[in-house]
Automatic annotation (TrEMBL):
Pfam families reported in the protein's UniProt record: ABC2_membrane_2
GO molecular function: ABC-type transporter activity
Chief location of this protein within or outside the cell: membrane
Signal peptide start and end residues: none
Name by which UniProt lists this protein: Gliding motility-associated ABC transporter permease subunit GldF
Record field: transmembrane: 12-35, 55-73, 94-119, 139-157, 164-181, 220-238
Cellular component terms per the entry's GO annotation: plasma membrane
Bilayer topology annotation: Multi-pass membrane protein
Record carries keyword Nucleotidyltransferase: no
Organism expressing this protein natively: Chitinophaga silvisoli
Amino acid sequence: MLAIFRKEIHQFFSSITGYIAIILFLLANGLLLFVFPDTSLLDYGYANLDPLFNLAPIIYLLLIPAITMRSFADEFKSGTMELLSTKPLSWWQIVNGKFFAGLLIVLISLIPTFVYYIAIRKLSAQNTVLDNGGIAGSYIGLFLLGAVFTAIGVWASSLTTNSVVAFLTAIFTCFIFYYGFDSLSKLPAFSGSADYYLQMAGIRFHYTSISRGVIDSRDVVYFFSIIALMLYLTRLSLQRRIWD
């Protein structure tokens, strides 16, 4: 697994594409949080990072599929997947190596955003106390969200030899998991009956819950369950493609 992990990290940072993806993520956040007036922290009126945690999932919808789209698609396209399957590696080692490499890149993109926290502390009025618990919970929620999107992206990449198709499939699936169930619960047909359970089936419900600063075990179990499900589906997809 470590060999695949190192290979993925090296491949990502061996081209300018990897650096551009992370730079664009940070640039988009920076512009939205400090330049554009509608979302600027400077005009928000409160010393917190709520705009960051509201905007980051939207940016992750594009960034993470771009990171993971080549995970397996390029392996199948170049014919190296068959060679990789003959190595003394289990399917889980292959899948987990790809997943954790993508997750590390997501984490690398997230770490520089701590600069925004420092900026808010410096710019806030004297004796202002930040909601450190809420901010910490939001960062944990954003990391778990990134992990789920990474697992979905790896799964999407295992379905096709075309990285663009994998990219679009991952975006669509992430969108459905994050916004789809929440939007479906607002339909009049589900009002007062299944609306709450539909919300609970979506990522946004649990992400918002953790962002309040209270780490509920049910939210953590939900995130890990979705990750485990997507990685399991990835393993099944790889086995089917290799055996067929």
